[in-house]
Design a protein that fits this description.
Number of helices: 15
Number of domains: 3
Order of helices and strands: EEEHEHHHEEHEEHEHEEEHHEHHHHHHEE
Shape: globular
Helix content: 40-55%
Radius of gyration: 25 Å
CATH class of the largest domain: Alpha Beta
Strand content: 15-25%
Strand order of the largest sheet: 4-3-9-10
CATH superfamily of the largest domain: HUPs
Distance between the termini: 51 Å
CATH topology of the largest domain: Rossmann fold
Number of strands: 15
Bound molecules: adenosine-5'-triphosphate, zinc ion
Length: 466
């Protein structure tokens, strides 16, 4: 049985879905105004692993993750670049897909966008207002936090501690400093939507509440996101949704730890970040993903060249074992002692499942993989081997690889479509910024990989050369 650490109760709990065999899962997605750094890539990678494992264990998973495609940061970026908000958002949504696809993150079943969910967001706020949980003030709408019983239950904070906390801004339009914004009145010349409270746009927290309700219903099984989202974002999502429906928003809350660099959280505001699309040029995307999964998702992971090189070497060892198994298979007849080895392989599978059942411990599951490789190497040193055993080893590597989203078979060094598109996008940006040196460098890199670019009036086209 799968157990997972529920941030709501601070305990590891057996996973019991609302509907047998089905999982409704939501993960807060990115605000699309720049490229993702490797810290931002951790939530998509680890929750993709969780989704894959739940699927492996027989659940039918519906996975939803949003795009925040209008917000202060995007508006600021658009103003700086002299572009439309929609153009900036579109570009970075493409870049997000390109990076996460290279990292072998499966697309969500649904990727709702704020700008496409506006009617539902407005209806959600209007219903909160009707119930007395929201009030209008000068074109803004706020949530009446103290009216919601249970505010603070996720982050474990009492209302009065929050009140004195420095993170709450004081704004005289609010009835109470704890109240937070649901709808923001538009500033002059700012992108806006019509609403019962005038022209404006939604606050950040309300989007997720409205999108979850629309796409998955009132109560979902798992709500996931980075640890920094616990407060205020997730606390506010709970308040909005539960005030409206009277039902629990999510039965299980999962929060991933940070990617640190020199023991400090990697973040855009600190400027200590490494972009995902840069690091996957230096190491393969597979190595980056494997590296990420060598730590348990809740523990902080330090980002360093040394650790990445370690992950690269480890992955190489596993791939070599698999290549040797394949090679051996081609020249083996069916003979040798089978039962003992088949039992060993079945035992490894059992241990892998036990580790993953225990709060998705991919770190320990990967050490089971290394043990499996060790066993495989011992087996191959025997004089006589059997096709059946070699196949059983290979099947298990393939099975684990599918769960982790990392392939252990050797591949030609070929660029994936998504990586090519990411590079072309980066070249477009470089050209726009008149950074022609970088633009040429990218053209050369693509040429080296036999990708031919063609500038057309409709934009850049590409094809693989012969
Ligand atoms: N270092 C990190 N490790 C793991 N997850 C992270 C890290 N930084 C951000 N995230 C996650 O990435 C997503 C986007 O976060 P956000 O845009 O706040 O990134 P950021 O770099 O921290 O930006 P800022 O410094 O502007 O807050 C969130 O889900 C957040 O939890
Ligand atoms: Zn959210």
């Amino acid at each position: 049985m799968i157990k997972l650490f529920n941030s709501l109760t601070n305990k590891k709990e057996p996973f019991v879905p609302i509907e047998e065999g089905k999982v409704k899962m939501y993960c807060c997605g990115p605000t699309v105004y720049n490229y993702i750094h490797i810290g931002n890539a951790r939530p998509p990678i680890v929750y993709d692993m969780v989704r894959r494992y739940l699927t492996y264990r027989g659940y039918d998973v519906t996975f939803v993750s949003n795009f925040t495609d209008v917000d202060d940061k995007i508006i600021r970026a658009a103003n700086e670049l002299g572009e439309e908000v929609a153009a900036v958002a579109e570009r970075f949504i493409k870049a997000y897909y390109a990076d996460t696809c290279a990292l072998n993150v499966k697309e969500a079943d649904l990727h709702p966008r704020v700008t496409e969910t506006m009617d539902d967001i407005i209806a959600f706020i209007a219903d909160l207002e009707k119930k007395g949980f929201a009030y209008e003030a000068g074109g803004d709408v706020y949530f009446r936090t103290r009216k919601f019983n249970g505010y603070g239950k996720l982050s474990g904070q009492a209302l009065d501690d929050l009140q004195s906390g420095a993170r709450i801004e004081v704004d005289e339009r609010k009835e109470d400093p704890l109240d937070f914004v649901l709808w923001k009145a538009a500033k002059p010349n700012e992108i806006s939507w019509s609403s019962p409270w005038g022209e404006g746009r939604p606050g950040w927290h309300i989007e997720c509440s409205a999108m979850i309700k629309k796409s998955l219903g009132d109560t979902i099984d798992i709500h996931a996101g980075g640890k920094d989202l616990t407060f205020p974002h997730h606390e506010n999502e709970i308040a909005q949704s539960e005030a409206l429906t009277g039902k629990k928003l999510a039965n299980y809350w999962m929060h991933n730890g940070f990617v640190n660099i020199n023991n400090e959280k990697m973040s855009k505001s600190l400027g200590n970040f490494v972009l995902a699309h840069d690091i996957i040029q230096q190491y393969s995307p597979e190595v980056v993903r494997f590296f990420m999964l060598t730590a348990h998702y809740r523990t902080p992971i330090n980002f360093s060249d040394e650790l990445l090189k370690g992950a690269e070497a480890g992955l190489e060892r596993l791939k070599n074992t698999v290549a040797n198994l394949q090679h051996r298979l081609a020249e083996t007849a069916d003979m040798g002692a089978e039962e003992e080895w088949l039992e060993k392989i079945a035992g490894a599978k059992q241990r892998f499942i036990e580790e993953m059942d225990d709060d998705f411990n991919s770190a320990n599951a990967i050490s089971v993989l290394f043990d499996l490789a060790k066993e495989a190497n011992i087996y191959m040193s025997e004089a006589q081997t059997s096709k059946k055993v070699l196949n059983a080893f290979l099947e298990l590597f393939a099975e684990f690889g599918e769960v982790l989203g990392v392939s252990f078979t050797q591949q030609e060094e070929e660029l994936l479509d998504a990586e090519i598109e990411a590079l072309i996008e980066e070249r477009n940006v470089a050209r726009k910024e008149r950074n022609f040196a970088r633009a040429d460098e990218i053209r050369d890199l693509l040429k080296e990989k036999n990708i031919v670019l063609e500038d057309t009036p409709q934009g850049v086209r590409w094809k693989r050369g012969s």
